[in-house]
Every structure is written in structure tokens, then in C-alpha cells.
Amino acid sequence: MTDGGISMTVYIDLVFLNNLAVDASVLLLTAKMRHLHPSRLRLFSSALLGASYAAAMFLAHLPYFFSLSAKVIVSLAMVFIAFGYGGPLRFVRNVGAFYAVSFGTLGGVIGISFLLQSADSPWGGMTVTSGGGIVLTWQLQLGLYAVALLLSIWILRSASETRKKSLELDQLIWDIEIRIDDAKWPVKALLDTGNRLYDPLTRTPVLIMESGVWEDQLPEGWHDRLKNESPDRLLTDATTGSAAVDQWKWAHRIRLVPFRAVNGSSKLMLAIKPDCVLLSREGHPPIQVNRVLVGLDGGTMSSEGTYRAIVHPDVAQAGAEEPAPSQPA
């Protein structure tokens, strides 16, 4: 623009290369979110289409070519080139992920750039037009733009990884119900394939649970002492004290299970023999397990409170193998 207006110089090669890098990053992040593995040629061809379209805006004045419908068509073509079709549902999901990553990245760039920029006054970047409107001026240097882009991609990728881990964890969470006499204790439990703790004498699998679940059922002080003391010491004190352990209603259910700690030392775990444990999970029929022990841990298993017990992998298998109770004729 001249006659007192603003003079602006646009370098087409920089516009092309910048959009090529951004489009390639968005496509790579989209592929990661959708667990896709496109070839490098497909990704490069798709990014090349997007970069060429952006550069064409400064080379030719074709209003309809840069309308909203034309931009949607170009973005659909980019997704098709990069990831193929694969059916309507798969294609729609790929397009949705592509737009989500694009908007998330752009929003991150704008937000981080405004955060990093400094101004003497919040009104410094605003201009009031003659019609009463407000024009917000956004100036961003190339280095700051690159930093903002990388940070926004990292934040979006980290959020995607966190969500993926959360979904994977949800698939391992079971609803269990421990039954003793007429009482029931429902607890969220994590299926841990690395848990191989058995009672060495009976080869009964041991389900580990926070002792806090049974704090009201245990003798006074046991829950707190289990955090730092060995169960055999705890039982010895209870035997010699005024409140003998054999007077406890669950005395006949007590077991001591030896196990090897992470540091290699041998320890004992206090365990209780329940009447049964019911396991259930969405999409799976409930399982009743009779041959199981409940080991008590004095700590907290999940800092977020997602689960309070750890299920032995053989418990579900043992429950599936146990014959169903006979029905009365």
C-alpha cells in the first residue's frame, strides 16, 4: 500500500517453506494421534499441497479459489493424500484429528506468542477504526514463531500421550467386591500382570489391597503400624497384649505370606482369607473367585485415588476356571 499507507514485503519462498514445515508437523502429529504409519512420500506430498496452496494466495488474485469451501476441499485432499480413504468412518476420524491438531497448534502459537511478547500498554496493539471497531495487531518475529510452534506441538503431543496412557490404564481397572460373612467392600483394582505373589504353601494367589479399606475392621492401630512394621511383630504384640489377636473376629482368616521386596530382601505380608471376591469390568461377565487371599499394604497405591487394590493376573483366570454354582432344580 502507498499514499501514507503501510508498505509490506512478502517473500513467497519463506511462506512456502514455513507452511511446508508446519503442515508436515501437523500431519505427523495427526498420524501419531490416530496410530497411523503413512509413508514419507505421502506426508511430503500432502504437506507440499498445503504449502503450495498457501503460497498461491500471494501469486494470483482468485477470490473463489481461497473461499471457505475451497480451503475445506484442500484440507480434505491433504488428509486423503497423507492417510488414504479407508472407508467413510475412518476418513472422517482422520479429518477430525487433522483439524483438532491444526486448531490446537495455531491456538498454542498465538497464546504462547502473546505470553512471550512484552508491551508497554495492553492498548498498544489495538487500533480503533472510524466505524467503532477494534483491530488487534499481531506481530511475530520468525524466531519467536518457531519457538511458539515447537512449544505448542510439544504441549499438544504431551496431552495426547497423557490421554493415551489414561485410556490404557482404564482398560486395566476392574471393579472388585470382597465378601466376608455378610459384609461387602467394593474397591477399584488394577490388573497387574507383573504381580506373581502366591501363598507358598497352598499356591493361592494373593490380591493386594490398601489396609485403609479395612481400617475399621482391623484391630486398633494395625492400619498405621502396617506402614512401618512387620506383620509378625504386630501379631506378637497382639498375642501378648490385653487384646489378644485370637479374640478378633477374623483371627481364623489371618495368613502370613512371605515375599521378596524390590531391594531383594525377604519380608512378610499380612493377608486375610475372604469368603470370595467378585470381579467385574465393562463388557465382561462378572467372575467369582473363592480361592484367593487379600494381602494388606499400609501405603497408598495410587496418588490420584484411581485404584486401591492390585489384582493378581491368575485370579481372573482362576475365577473363569471355577465351576459355576449349581442352580436348584
TrEMBL record:
<dbReference type="Pfam" id="PF03419">
    <property type="entry name" value="Peptidase_U4"/>
</dbReference>
<keyword id="KW-0472">Membrane</keyword>
<keyword id="KW-1133">Transmembrane helix</keyword>
<feature type="transmembrane region" description="Helical">
    <location>
        <begin position="136"/>
        <end position="156"/>
    </location>
</feature>
<feature type="transmembrane region" description="Helical">
    <location>
        <begin position="6"/>
        <end position="29"/>
    </location>
</feature>
<feature type="transmembrane region" description="Helical">
    <location>
        <begin position="65"/>
        <end position="85"/>
    </location>
</feature>
<feature type="transmembrane region" description="Helical">
    <location>
        <begin position="97"/>
        <end position="116"/>
    </location>
</feature>
<dbReference type="InterPro" id="IPR005081">
    <property type="entry name" value="SpoIIGA"/>
</dbReference>
<feature type="transmembrane region" description="Helical">
    <location>
        <begin position="41"/>
        <end position="59"/>
    </location>
</feature>
<keyword id="KW-0812">Transmembrane</keyword>
<protein>
    <submittedName>
        <fullName>Sigma-E processing peptidase SpoIIGA</fullName>
    </submittedName>
</protein>
